[in-house]
From TrEMBL:
Gene3D superfamilies: Dimeric alpha+beta barrel (3.30.70.1060). This is Uncharacterized conserved protein. It comes from Micromonospora rhizosphaerae. Residues 1-105 form the YCII-related domain. Belongs to the YciI family.
């Protein structure tokens, strides 16, 4: 089953910086196990462009539309047997300690 894993910042990170695993080790292990299909870091929110259509008119604005302190900083596309396996993958990611990880299954898991 495929899951999108959003890697996000958090205003309340873990205070023990030694607890977080190394990101390169995490990527290597997940790639070797076939659990991570792709992933990457994102440019900062200041590089974002928000696109909306309202009343047939295209509205384009710089930066993120939402006013928030937590932002998505990266993503990974996972292939896991089930949600429990996806949670195990997410809990070992360094940003689970410093930020937040959001897991979402794809709407059509058979596609």
């Amino acid at each position: 089953m495929k899951y999108m894993m959003f890697v996000c910042t958090d205003t309340e990170p873990d205070t023990d910086p030694t607890a977080a695993p190394d990101i390169d080790d995490w990527v290597s292990e997940r790639d070797a196990r076939g659990q991570r299909l792709t992933g990457d870091a994102l440019a900062p929110p200041s590089a974002a462009t928000t696109v909306r259509v309202r009343g047939g008119e295209l509205l384009v604005s710089d930066g993120p539309f939402a006013e928030t302190k937590e932002v998505i900083v990266g993503f990974d596309l996972l292939e896991c047997a089930d949600l429990d396996e996806a949670i195990e993958v997410a809990r070992s990611h360094p940003m689970a300690y410093r930020g937040r990880i959001e897991l979402r299954p794809f709407a059509n898991p058979d596609a």
